Amino acid sequence: MTITTLDLEAKLSLYRSQVELRQFEKRAYDLFLENYVKGTSHLSLGQEAIAAGFAAAMRPDDYTFATYRGHAHTLARGVPMTPVLAELMGRENGLMAGKGGSMHLTSVEHGVMGSYAIIGAHLPIACGAAWSAQYRGTEQVAVCFFGDGTTNIGAFHEALNFAAIWKLPVVFVCENNLWMEYTRTSTITAVEHPAADRASAYGLESIIVDGNDVDAVFEVASAAIARARAGEGPSMIEAKTYRQAGHSRADPGKYRPDEEVAEWLAKDPIPMYHARLLAEGATEAQLAEIDREVAAMVDLATQEAKDGAIPSADLVFKDVWADGGSAWRN
Amino acid sequence: MAQLTFREAIARGIAQEMRRDPSVVLIGEDIGAAGGVFKGTVGLFEEFGDRRVRDTPISEQAILGAAMGAAMTGMRPIAEIMFSDFFAVCWDIVVNEIAKSRYMTNGQMTFPLVIRSGNGGGLRFGAQHSQSVENWAMMVPGLKVVVPSNALDVVGLMAASVRDNDPVIFLEAKSLYATKTEVPDGDIVDSLGTAKVVRQGSNATLVALGAMVPKALAAAEELAAQGIDCTVVDVRSLVPLDTQTILREVSATGRLFTVEENPRLCGWGGELSSIVAEELFYDLDGPIVRITTPHIPLPAADALEDIAIPSVARIVETVSASMNA
Question: Is A5 exposed, middle or buried (0-12, 13-18, 19+ CB in 10 A)?
C-alpha cells in the first residue's frame, strides 16, 4: 500500500509489511531444509526495512527492479505469498509457473519488472523503464535495488551516467550489507561508502540512510521518488544494513566475526520497530495480532504452494517468442 | 522507384516506421545530428527530433539496457551498436536479459525491440571492427536474427523487425552500405523468416547470407559459363529460419554449398548442413560443402583480408572442383 503520512496506522502497516517479509523468508529457509525449495535462494533476513519502506513510498504503477535477493521486494509490492512460495518450490501455481525460480521473481501487474541475477544488469534496464515513463509522460518512477558488490561493475557506472544525463525518473538503492559474498566489500572497494561516495561522480547527492530503520527509509524514499516524479532526475541512496543469514542457501556465513553478527542482530529492524511502536502508542496486543495474522498467512501460503501441481511438460516449449511458442524454423 | 543505397535504405525503413508509430524511438552513439558513423540514420534527427532520435554515451550496456527497459514498458526502441564486435561488451544484456526474460517470466513480458549493428569485413578495419557475429546471435534462444543483402530487403525487413514483438538482431553488412538497389516508392513491409530464391539453377544450390549473396550471384554467373547452373538462395533471416525454401531448393539440385562470412566453427552453415543431412540425405548427389571465412581473427591488410573472406573466385573454384570431382 502507498503511504503518504507516517501516522500510527501507517506505521502499523510498515510493521506488518516487515513481519510478512521476515516470516516468509524464515519459512522459505525451513522449506529448503525440508527439500521443498530446490536450487538456490537468497534471503533478505535483516534487510526487510528497505523493501518495506520503499514499497510504501511507491505509487502502484511505479516500477521495481530487484536482484536475485528479491523475495522481499516482490512481496512488498503486494504480490501474494502463495505464488512466490510456489515459484520457489517449482510449482505450476508459482508466479512464473516455475519457469523463473527464486532469482527471477517478476509480477508485471504489481510493477515488479523483474529480479535480475547478473550483477549490475538491471540498473541500465531500470533506466530504460524510466526513460519510457519520461517519454510517455506517465510520471512513473523506477526504483532499482542492488547490493554493495554491484558498485564495482561497469553497468553500475554506465547506468548512473546515463540516468544523470537524461534526467531519468529512477531511484538507485544500494542495500549495503557490508559483504559481497564471502568478501568484505570495504576490502575490495576504493571508497568507504561504495554507492554514496560514487554519487558525486555523476552529479548526484550523496545520501546514506539507516537501512534498518523503516521510518528513515520511508522518508528518504519518499523524497527521492517525489523528486524523480517531478522531473528532477535520478537519486542514489545507500542504505546500511546487514544480512542476518549467509549469501545464499549454500552459505552458512561463517566468515563473519561473531561480534559483528551480534552487533547487527541487536540492530534487527523488526524488534527495534516493535519497541518504537509501543513507545508511540501501539499496544502489545495490536502487534501480537499482526504477528499471528501473518503467521497464518504464511501457513496458508505454505499449504497452497505444497498443494500446487507439478508444472505441465508443455511449459518447457512455451513463451520463447511473443506468439507463445518456441519454433525457430518452419 | 529510385536507386537507393543500402545505407539510405536503413534510414528509409526506420523513418517509415517512426512516422507510423510514435512508440518507435532510436538510440545509439552518434546517430543523431551526425547521422551515424556509417550514415545509416541520416535525416532522422532532423525529421523526428532529439526526443525520438537520441545520442547516447559510449555505454553499450546502458544503450541495450535502456532499449530493454523501454520495450518491456510499451515502447518499440531501435538501438544501434555501432560495430557488431562491440556486442562483446554488452552481451550480458542481449543474452541473459533480453533473450531470456520473456521465457523466465512465463510470458509476462514482451520485448519488441531491434538492435541494429554494422557487421562483417571488407573495409580493412582489422580484427576488432570486422568480424561477422551472426553465429553468436543465432545460437541464443530468444533472439531473432535478420541479415539483409540489398537495399530493398533492408527497408522491408527493417519494417518487419520493428513491427515484430520479439527482439531482433538486425545485422547490416558494412561492405554493402554503398551498394544500390531499385526500391519502389511507398511503404514496404516484408516478412521475417522468409528466404528468397535469387537465382534459379539446376545443378547446385548455393545458400548465402548478407554480403555473401552478391558474391554467390557473381560466382553463379561464372559457374554458368563453365556449364554449372546454380540456384542461389538468400537466407535473409537466420532465426526464424526458412528451412522449407532451403530444403526445397537443395532437393531440386541435389547439392548444397553454403557461403558464409562468419568464421567456420559453429557458423550458421554448420546448422544448416546438419538439417539437410538429417532430412534430405537421400536427395543429395554429393557432399555438402561449406565455404566460409577460416577459423581466424580477420587480418587488416587488404591483400590478407581478401584471402580470408570468401571471394567470388574461391566460391567458383570450390563449387567447380566439387562438382567435377
Answer: exposed
- Distance between CA A106 and CA B140 in Å, rounded? 22
Q: Does B85 touch chain A (CB under 8 A)?
A: no
Q: Name the phi and psi angles at A55, rounded to 5.
A: -60, -35
| Average confidence (pLDDT) over B203-226 | 98
3-state secondary structure B73-130: CCCEEEEEEEEHHHHHHCHHHHHHHHHHHHHHCCCCCCCCCEEEEEECCCCCCCCCCC
Give the B window 10-39 contacts with A, CB below 8 Å: 25
Convert the pLDDT of each residue in A82-97 to its tens digit.
999 999 999 999 999 9
Looking up cell 531519468 gives A168
B236-281: pLDDT as tens digits: 999 999 999 999 999 999 999 999 999 999 999 999 999 999 999 9
> B-chain residues within 8 Å CB-CB of A126?
65, 69
Residue of B56, B73, B106 lying closest to A132 (CB–CB): B73
Single-letter residue type at A296: A
Task: Give the Cα separation of A285 and A302 in Å (integer).
Answer: 25
Cell of A218: 520511508
For residue A324, tell me if it sits in a domain: no
Cα A81 to Cα A93: distance, rounded to the nearest angstrom: 11
Asked if B183 contacts B12 with a C-beta cutoff of 8 angstroms, the reply is yes
Domain of A263 in residue numbering reads as 8-310
Of B104, B112, B241, nearest to A100 by CB-CB distance is: B104
CATH number reported for the structural domain that contains residue A77 in this entry: 3.40.50.970
Cα gap A270→A293, rounded to integer Å: 16
**Is residue A318 one of the residues assigned to a domain?**
no
Among candidates A229, A250, A255, A246, which has minimal Cα distance to A167? Answer: A229
Beta strands in chain A (DSSP E): 63-67, 112-116, 142-147, 170-176, 207-210, 235-240
For cell 545509439, the residue is: B28
- Would residue B129 show up in a list of annotated catalytic residues for this protein? yes
Encode pLDDT of B30-84 as tens digits: 999 999 999 999 999 999 999 999 999 999 999 999 999 999 999 999 999 999 9
Q: pLDDT-derived band of residue B1, with 50, 70 and 90 as boundaries?
A: confident
Decide which of 1.10.10.570, 2.60.40.150, 3.40.50.970, 3.40.50.2000 is the CATH code for B2-183.
3.40.50.970
d(CA A169, CA A66): 16
Catalytic residue among B7, B12, B76, B129: B129
Domain B196-323 has what CATH class? alpha beta
How far apart CA B132 and CA B140 sit, in angstroms, is: 16
